[in-house]
Amino acid sequence: MKNIKKKALAAATISGLTAAMTGVLSLTPIGSDEAVAQSGMEKCAGIARKAMNDCGANGHACGGLAAVDGDPNEWVYVPIGSCEKIVNGRLLKEGRGRAVKSNDKCYGIARKAKNDCGANGHACGGLAVVDGDPNEWIYLPKGICEKIVGASTSKP
Predict the structure, then answer these.
(1) What's the whole-model pTM score?
(2) Tens of pLDDT along 35-48?
């Protein structure tokens, strides 16, 4: 009887592991364009800090290999709609997905008239008067601001 219980337990464990692995393997790869669009992100070139890019460009295939700040071919993922708000940001592939909740104010990278809220004596978004004003900001999820040239999560 003990042998049967051991075999049943082993079979149940293997069955559970097989089901779990099948579920994991059936997921869309995280780096695929479909997964990115579903997560509400887009590829934004020209804004990556040195060694902070998200994936391949310029003859390399990996993230973290950007050789210089602001290379026009290197890119990072940002929430859909954010790239057009960032100085020197250039959208690589437009996608549409659900919006991503923002967590950090990211200072110093807002384009003229593309800031998210008030600064410099005004109280509204869209009133930045120059590109890259260090007091103007846009919302980005935690961890993204640090990847962008000239960006800071701290108010100057």
Answers:
(1) 0.51
(2) 555 578 898 999 99
